[in-house]
Amino acid sequence: MRQIGVNNLKPGMVLGRPIYDQNYRKLLAEGTKIDPLSVQRIREMGFYYVYILESGTESIQVEDLIGIEARKVSSQALNQIALFDTDTVARDRMRRTGISQEREPGLDLETKRTVNRAIKLMVNDVTRVRRPVYFPGVHLADNQIINHSTNVAILSLLIGLGFTLERDDMMLLAKAALYHDLGKLRLDPDLASVHPLDRTEAQRDMYLMHPQMGAILLERDPTINIHITMAVLQHHEKQDGSGFPSGMKGSGEMPKANRESRGTIHRFAEIIAVADYFDNLVSGKIERELFTPIEAVEEIVRRTPSWFNEHITQMAMSVINTLPEGSNVEILESSTHYEYVGYRGVVSKVNPENLNRPTVTLLYDKFHERLEEPVAVDFADDYRLKVDFLYDL
Question: Could you give the CA distance from residue 228 to residue 226 in angstroms, rounded to a whole number?
Fold first, then answer.
Protein backbone atom coordinates (compact mmCIF):
# COMPACT_ATOMS: atom_id res chain seq x y z
CA MET A 1 0.00 0.00 0.00
CA ARG A 2 0.99 3.63 -0.33
CA GLN A 3 -0.17 7.12 0.55
CA ILE A 4 -2.15 9.26 -1.84
CA GLY A 5 -3.30 12.85 -1.44
CA VAL A 6 -7.09 13.06 -1.37
CA ASN A 7 -7.08 15.51 -4.27
CA ASN A 8 -5.61 12.73 -6.40
CA LEU A 9 -8.03 10.08 -5.16
CA LYS A 10 -10.06 8.58 -7.99
CA PRO A 11 -13.05 6.21 -8.18
CA GLY A 12 -11.96 2.61 -8.56
CA MET A 13 -8.95 2.90 -6.25
CA VAL A 14 -8.88 0.44 -3.34
CA LEU A 15 -8.37 1.50 0.28
CA GLY A 16 -5.31 0.05 1.96
CA ARG A 17 -6.35 1.06 5.48
CA PRO A 18 -9.77 1.67 7.04
CA ILE A 19 -11.24 5.12 7.62
CA TYR A 20 -12.98 5.82 10.94
CA ASP A 21 -15.35 8.46 12.22
CA GLN A 22 -14.64 10.42 15.41
CA ASN A 23 -16.08 7.59 17.53
CA TYR A 24 -13.89 5.03 15.76
CA ARG A 25 -16.75 3.44 13.93
CA LYS A 26 -15.42 2.10 10.66
CA LEU A 27 -16.73 4.20 7.77
CA LEU A 28 -14.84 2.48 4.97
CA ALA A 29 -13.06 -0.84 5.40
CA GLU A 30 -9.69 -1.91 4.08
CA GLY A 31 -10.13 -3.35 0.59
CA THR A 32 -13.11 -1.11 -0.26
CA LYS A 33 -13.21 0.01 -3.88
CA ILE A 34 -13.83 3.73 -3.75
CA ASP A 35 -16.83 5.11 -5.64
CA PRO A 36 -17.41 8.78 -6.62
CA LEU A 37 -19.54 9.43 -3.52
CA SER A 38 -16.80 8.06 -1.24
CA VAL A 39 -14.19 10.26 -2.91
CA GLN A 40 -16.34 13.31 -2.27
CA ARG A 41 -17.04 12.30 1.32
CA ILE A 42 -13.39 11.69 2.13
CA ARG A 43 -12.46 15.12 0.80
CA GLU A 44 -15.28 16.84 2.67
CA MET A 45 -14.18 15.18 5.92
CA GLY A 46 -10.87 17.01 5.70
CA PHE A 47 -8.46 14.13 5.22
CA TYR A 48 -5.13 15.14 3.71
CA TYR A 49 -4.32 11.70 2.37
CA VAL A 50 -5.34 8.07 2.68
CA TYR A 51 -3.66 4.75 1.91
CA ILE A 52 -4.48 2.74 -1.19
CA LEU A 53 -3.57 -0.68 -2.48
CA GLU A 54 -1.65 -0.50 -5.74
CA SER A 55 0.26 -2.87 -7.96
CA GLY A 56 3.90 -3.01 -6.90
CA THR A 57 3.17 -2.03 -3.29
CA GLU A 58 1.39 -5.20 -2.14
CA SER A 59 4.13 -6.15 0.35
CA ILE A 60 4.31 -2.72 2.00
CA GLN A 61 2.66 -2.69 5.42
CA VAL A 62 1.88 0.39 7.49
CA GLU A 63 1.38 -0.16 11.20
CA ASP A 64 0.45 2.26 13.96
CA LEU A 65 2.60 2.75 17.00
CA ILE A 66 -0.46 2.57 19.22
CA GLY A 67 -3.48 0.39 18.67
CA ILE A 68 -6.97 1.39 17.61
CA GLU A 69 -8.24 0.74 21.15
CA ALA A 70 -5.85 3.34 22.61
CA ARG A 71 -6.91 5.92 20.02
CA LYS A 72 -10.57 5.09 20.56
CA VAL A 73 -10.39 5.55 24.33
CA SER A 74 -8.35 8.74 23.89
CA SER A 75 -11.09 10.02 21.59
CA GLN A 76 -13.74 9.13 24.18
CA ALA A 77 -11.81 10.97 26.88
CA LEU A 78 -11.45 14.14 24.85
CA ASN A 79 -15.09 14.03 23.79
CA GLN A 80 -16.09 13.75 27.46
CA ILE A 81 -13.89 16.73 28.27
CA ALA A 82 -15.58 18.72 25.51
CA LEU A 83 -19.01 17.79 26.86
CA PHE A 84 -18.00 18.76 30.35
CA ASP A 85 -16.98 22.19 29.24
CA THR A 86 -19.67 23.02 26.76
CA ASP A 87 -23.10 21.61 27.56
CA THR A 88 -25.62 20.56 30.19
CA VAL A 89 -24.72 16.88 29.96
CA ALA A 90 -21.77 17.53 32.26
CA ARG A 91 -23.81 19.52 34.74
CA ASP A 92 -26.32 16.67 34.93
CA ARG A 93 -23.46 14.27 35.51
CA MET A 94 -22.16 16.49 38.33
CA ARG A 95 -25.58 16.51 40.00
CA ARG A 96 -25.90 12.72 39.70
CA THR A 97 -22.54 12.20 41.39
CA GLY A 98 -23.36 14.67 44.15
CA ILE A 99 -20.60 17.12 43.27
CA SER A 100 -21.45 20.70 44.16
CA GLN A 101 -21.85 22.90 41.10
CA GLU A 102 -20.50 25.86 43.02
CA ARG A 103 -17.17 24.07 43.38
CA GLU A 104 -17.02 23.45 39.60
CA PRO A 105 -14.23 20.87 39.64
CA GLY A 106 -11.91 20.54 36.66
CA LEU A 107 -13.09 17.13 35.49
CA ASP A 108 -15.55 14.63 36.83
CA LEU A 109 -14.71 11.11 38.00
CA GLU A 110 -16.07 9.40 34.88
CA THR A 111 -13.95 11.55 32.58
CA LYS A 112 -10.81 11.07 34.66
CA ARG A 113 -11.29 7.29 34.58
CA THR A 114 -11.52 7.38 30.79
CA VAL A 115 -8.44 9.62 30.57
CA ASN A 116 -6.47 7.29 32.86
CA ARG A 117 -7.43 4.28 30.75
CA ALA A 118 -6.39 6.08 27.56
CA ILE A 119 -3.04 7.07 29.07
CA LYS A 120 -2.35 3.55 30.33
CA LEU A 121 -3.11 2.06 26.90
CA MET A 122 -0.89 4.59 25.12
CA VAL A 123 2.03 4.17 27.51
CA ASN A 124 1.76 0.38 27.31
CA ASP A 125 1.67 0.42 23.51
CA VAL A 126 4.57 2.85 23.14
CA THR A 127 6.84 1.13 25.67
CA ARG A 128 6.06 -2.32 24.30
CA VAL A 129 6.76 -1.60 20.63
CA ARG A 130 9.15 1.36 20.76
CA ARG A 131 10.02 2.30 17.22
CA PRO A 132 10.26 5.61 15.37
CA VAL A 133 6.94 6.78 14.03
CA TYR A 134 5.41 9.59 12.06
CA PHE A 135 1.69 10.17 12.51
CA PRO A 136 0.03 12.96 10.54
CA GLY A 137 -3.40 12.61 12.11
CA VAL A 138 -5.28 10.94 9.27
CA HIS A 139 -7.54 8.89 11.52
CA LEU A 140 -10.17 11.41 12.52
CA ALA A 141 -10.16 14.37 10.18
CA ASP A 142 -13.61 15.41 11.42
CA ASN A 143 -12.24 16.38 14.81
CA GLN A 144 -8.83 18.02 14.57
CA ILE A 145 -8.39 18.71 18.27
CA ILE A 146 -8.83 15.01 19.09
CA ASN A 147 -6.31 14.04 16.40
CA HIS A 148 -3.92 16.71 17.51
CA SER A 149 -4.08 16.03 21.25
CA THR A 150 -3.63 12.29 20.76
CA ASN A 151 -0.74 12.76 18.32
CA VAL A 152 0.99 15.21 20.65
CA ALA A 153 0.65 12.71 23.50
CA ILE A 154 2.16 9.90 21.40
CA LEU A 155 5.12 11.95 20.17
CA SER A 156 5.71 13.33 23.67
CA LEU A 157 5.84 9.76 24.96
CA LEU A 158 8.37 8.77 22.31
CA ILE A 159 10.59 11.70 23.24
CA GLY A 160 10.21 10.95 26.95
CA LEU A 161 11.06 7.31 26.33
CA GLY A 162 14.23 8.41 24.57
CA PHE A 163 15.25 10.21 27.76
CA THR A 164 14.49 7.03 29.75
CA LEU A 165 11.87 8.71 31.89
CA GLU A 166 10.38 6.49 34.57
CA ARG A 167 6.91 5.05 33.99
CA ASP A 168 5.30 7.42 36.50
CA ASP A 169 6.82 10.38 34.67
CA MET A 170 5.67 8.93 31.35
CA MET A 171 2.10 8.73 32.66
CA LEU A 172 2.22 12.35 33.84
CA LEU A 173 3.77 13.52 30.57
CA ALA A 174 1.15 11.72 28.47
CA LYS A 175 -1.69 13.12 30.54
CA ALA A 176 -0.30 16.66 30.33
CA ALA A 177 0.05 16.29 26.55
CA LEU A 178 -3.50 15.00 26.20
CA TYR A 179 -4.75 17.92 28.31
CA HIS A 180 -2.52 20.60 26.74
CA ASP A 181 -5.32 22.22 24.67
CA LEU A 182 -7.98 21.81 27.33
CA GLY A 183 -8.27 25.59 27.56
CA LYS A 184 -9.42 25.86 23.94
CA LEU A 185 -12.46 23.73 24.74
CA ARG A 186 -13.10 25.77 27.87
CA LEU A 187 -12.95 29.10 26.07
CA ASP A 188 -14.63 28.26 22.79
CA PRO A 189 -15.29 24.77 21.37
CA ASP A 190 -14.86 26.15 17.84
CA LEU A 191 -11.52 27.84 18.51
CA ALA A 192 -9.45 24.77 17.64
CA SER A 193 -11.19 24.39 14.28
CA VAL A 194 -10.43 27.94 13.13
CA HIS A 195 -7.15 28.31 11.24
CA PRO A 196 -4.77 30.76 12.98
CA LEU A 197 -4.69 32.94 9.88
CA ASP A 198 -8.50 33.20 9.93
CA ARG A 199 -8.99 34.11 13.59
CA THR A 200 -10.65 37.37 14.51
CA GLU A 201 -8.89 39.70 16.94
CA ALA A 202 -11.14 38.42 19.72
CA GLN A 203 -10.29 34.84 18.83
CA ARG A 204 -6.58 35.65 18.79
CA ASP A 205 -6.85 37.15 22.26
CA MET A 206 -8.82 34.12 23.38
CA TYR A 207 -6.21 31.78 21.92
CA LEU A 208 -3.47 33.46 23.96
CA MET A 209 -5.53 32.72 27.08
CA HIS A 210 -5.97 28.99 26.51
CA PRO A 211 -2.92 27.83 28.54
CA GLN A 212 -4.14 29.73 31.64
CA MET A 213 -7.70 28.49 31.21
CA GLY A 214 -6.55 24.90 30.90
CA ALA A 215 -4.42 25.27 34.01
CA ILE A 216 -7.27 26.94 35.95
CA LEU A 217 -9.58 24.07 35.10
CA LEU A 218 -7.02 21.51 36.26
CA GLU A 219 -5.90 23.24 39.45
CA ARG A 220 -9.47 23.29 40.77
CA ASP A 221 -9.15 19.54 41.19
CA PRO A 222 -6.75 18.58 44.01
CA THR A 223 -6.25 15.11 42.50
CA ILE A 224 -4.52 16.55 39.41
CA ASN A 225 -0.74 16.41 39.77
CA ILE A 226 0.87 19.86 39.84
CA HIS A 227 3.36 18.85 37.13
CA ILE A 228 0.47 18.28 34.71
CA THR A 229 -0.97 21.72 35.46
CA MET A 230 2.43 23.38 35.05
CA ALA A 231 3.03 21.67 31.70
CA VAL A 232 -0.38 22.72 30.38
CA LEU A 233 0.23 26.29 31.52
CA GLN A 234 3.72 26.52 29.99
CA HIS A 235 3.52 24.56 26.73
CA HIS A 236 3.66 27.76 24.63
CA GLU A 237 6.61 29.27 26.50
CA LYS A 238 9.86 29.52 24.51
CA GLN A 239 13.49 29.09 25.51
CA ASP A 240 14.34 32.73 24.79
CA GLY A 241 11.39 34.10 26.77
CA SER A 242 9.34 35.15 23.72
CA GLY A 243 6.46 32.75 24.39
CA PHE A 244 3.25 33.09 26.37
CA PRO A 245 1.53 33.44 28.81
CA SER A 246 4.38 34.47 31.15
CA GLY A 247 7.43 34.92 28.94
CA MET A 248 9.39 32.32 30.92
CA LYS A 249 12.82 31.24 29.73
CA GLY A 250 14.15 27.72 29.43
CA SER A 251 17.22 26.36 31.14
CA GLY A 252 18.39 24.40 28.10
CA GLU A 253 19.03 21.39 30.34
CA MET A 254 18.23 17.78 29.57
CA PRO A 255 14.72 16.82 30.83
CA LYS A 256 15.75 14.27 33.43
CA ALA A 257 13.50 13.25 36.30
CA ASN A 258 15.52 15.10 38.95
CA ARG A 259 15.80 18.37 37.04
CA GLU A 260 14.77 21.42 39.03
CA SER A 261 11.99 23.21 37.13
CA ARG A 262 11.42 26.14 39.48
CA GLY A 263 11.79 29.49 37.71
CA THR A 264 12.19 27.95 34.28
CA ILE A 265 10.00 26.17 31.75
CA HIS A 266 8.83 22.79 33.02
CA ARG A 267 10.55 19.85 31.35
CA PHE A 268 7.20 18.31 30.33
CA ALA A 269 6.14 21.61 28.74
CA GLU A 270 9.40 21.70 26.76
CA ILE A 271 8.70 18.23 25.36
CA ILE A 272 5.06 19.00 24.57
CA ALA A 273 6.10 22.24 22.84
CA VAL A 274 8.13 20.35 20.23
CA ALA A 275 5.46 17.68 19.70
CA ASP A 276 2.73 20.32 19.47
CA TYR A 277 4.63 22.39 16.90
CA PHE A 278 5.47 19.37 14.75
CA ASP A 279 1.89 18.15 14.57
CA ASN A 280 0.60 21.66 13.87
CA LEU A 281 3.04 22.00 10.97
CA VAL A 282 2.16 18.71 9.28
CA SER A 283 -1.58 19.25 9.77
CA GLY A 284 -1.63 22.76 8.27
CA LYS A 285 -2.28 24.58 11.55
CA ILE A 286 0.60 27.04 11.11
CA GLU A 287 0.52 27.95 7.43
CA ARG A 288 -2.03 27.33 4.67
CA GLU A 289 0.15 24.71 3.05
CA LEU A 290 0.99 21.51 4.87
CA PHE A 291 4.59 20.96 5.84
CA THR A 292 5.99 17.59 4.85
CA PRO A 293 7.50 15.64 7.77
CA ILE A 294 10.97 16.53 6.48
CA GLU A 295 10.11 20.23 6.26
CA ALA A 296 8.54 20.17 9.73
CA VAL A 297 11.68 18.72 11.31
CA GLU A 298 13.82 21.27 9.46
CA GLU A 299 11.60 24.08 10.76
CA ILE A 300 11.92 22.83 14.35
CA VAL A 301 15.70 22.68 13.97
CA ARG A 302 15.65 26.24 12.61
CA ARG A 303 13.71 27.38 15.69
CA THR A 304 16.20 25.73 18.06
CA PRO A 305 17.58 26.85 20.51
CA SER A 306 15.62 30.12 20.48
CA TRP A 307 12.25 28.41 20.83
CA PHE A 308 12.97 24.80 21.73
CA ASN A 309 15.29 22.95 24.09
CA GLU A 310 18.17 21.64 21.99
CA HIS A 311 18.26 18.26 23.77
CA ILE A 312 14.57 17.72 23.05
CA THR A 313 14.89 18.72 19.40
CA GLN A 314 17.74 16.23 18.98
CA MET A 315 15.68 13.49 20.60
CA ALA A 316 12.65 14.35 18.45
CA MET A 317 14.78 14.03 15.32
CA SER A 318 15.77 10.53 16.40
CA VAL A 319 12.21 9.29 17.01
CA ILE A 320 10.26 11.01 14.22
CA ASN A 321 10.36 8.89 11.10
CA THR A 322 10.05 11.43 8.28
CA LEU A 323 10.05 8.64 5.69
CA PRO A 324 7.61 5.99 6.97
CA GLU A 325 6.58 2.90 5.09
CA GLY A 326 4.04 3.74 2.41
CA SER A 327 5.27 7.31 1.87
CA ASN A 328 5.93 8.54 -1.66
CA VAL A 329 9.39 9.89 -2.52
CA GLU A 330 11.47 11.13 -5.40
CA ILE A 331 15.23 10.47 -5.47
CA LEU A 332 17.03 13.82 -5.69
CA GLU A 333 20.65 12.81 -4.99
CA SER A 334 22.50 9.54 -4.58
CA SER A 335 26.12 8.42 -4.23
CA THR A 336 25.69 4.70 -4.88
CA HIS A 337 22.56 4.62 -7.05
CA TYR A 338 22.94 7.79 -9.11
CA GLU A 339 21.23 6.09 -12.04
CA TYR A 340 17.95 6.35 -10.12
CA VAL A 341 18.06 10.12 -9.58
CA GLY A 342 14.68 11.49 -10.62
CA TYR A 343 12.91 8.17 -10.09
CA ARG A 344 9.83 8.00 -7.89
CA GLY A 345 8.63 5.27 -5.60
CA VAL A 346 7.35 4.19 -2.21
CA VAL A 347 9.29 3.61 1.01
CA SER A 348 8.97 -0.13 1.54
CA LYS A 349 11.28 -0.71 4.50
CA VAL A 350 12.62 1.60 7.18
CA ASN A 351 16.30 1.41 8.06
CA PRO A 352 16.40 1.51 11.90
CA GLU A 353 20.11 2.40 11.83
CA ASN A 354 19.52 5.48 9.70
CA LEU A 355 15.94 6.66 9.16
CA ASN A 356 17.03 8.85 6.26
CA ARG A 357 18.26 5.89 4.20
CA PRO A 358 15.34 3.50 3.71
CA THR A 359 14.62 0.87 1.10
CA VAL A 360 12.50 2.33 -1.68
CA THR A 361 10.40 0.41 -4.20
CA LEU A 362 10.76 2.47 -7.37
CA LEU A 363 7.68 2.59 -9.60
CA TYR A 364 8.35 5.50 -12.00
CA ASP A 365 11.41 6.56 -14.00
CA LYS A 366 12.83 10.07 -14.18
CA PHE A 367 10.34 10.93 -16.91
CA HIS A 368 7.55 9.83 -14.53
CA GLU A 369 6.73 6.88 -16.77
CA ARG A 370 5.62 3.69 -15.01
CA LEU A 371 8.33 1.02 -14.86
CA GLU A 372 7.48 -2.37 -16.32
CA GLU A 373 8.54 -3.98 -13.03
CA PRO A 374 9.06 -2.36 -9.60
CA VAL A 375 12.68 -2.03 -8.49
CA ALA A 376 13.48 -2.31 -4.76
CA VAL A 377 16.62 -0.33 -3.88
CA ASP A 378 18.29 -0.40 -0.47
CA PHE A 379 19.86 3.02 0.21
CA ALA A 380 21.36 2.03 3.59
CA ASP A 381 24.94 2.79 2.47
CA ASP A 382 24.09 5.82 0.37
CA TYR A 383 25.70 8.66 2.32
CA ARG A 384 24.53 11.32 -0.14
CA LEU A 385 20.94 10.16 -0.45
CA LYS A 386 18.47 13.02 -0.63
CA VAL A 387 14.80 12.51 -1.32
CA ASP A 388 11.71 14.65 -1.66
CA PHE A 389 8.55 13.65 0.22
CA LEU A 390 5.53 13.56 -2.12
CA TYR A 391 1.83 13.41 -1.35
CA ASP A 392 1.32 11.48 -4.56
CA LEU A 393 3.36 9.92 -7.35
Answer: 5
Tell me: the pLDDT tens digits for 12-34?
Answer: 999 999 888 777 778 889 999 99
Of the chain, the end-to-end C-alpha distance in Å amounts to: 13
Q: What pLDDT score does 103 carry? A: 41
Cα 70 from Cα 220, distance rounded (Å):
27
Residue 61: is its pLDDT beyond 60? yes
Pseudo-torsion of CA 314, 317, 319, 324, nearest 10°?
A: -170
Are the beta carbons of 263 and 253 closer than 8 angstroms? no
pTM, to two decimals: 0.89
Domain extent listing, the chain: 2-53, 68-319, 328-390
Question: Which homologous superfamily does the CATH classification assign to the domain defined by 68-319?
Answer: Hypothetical protein af1432 (1.10.3210.10)
| pLDDT mean over 347-363 | 93
- What is the CA 9 to chain-centroid distance, rounded? 23
The CATH code for residues 2-53 is: 3.90.105.10
Distance between CA atoms of 374 and 327, rounded to whole angstroms? 15
Element containing residue 346 per DSSP (H, E): strand 344-349
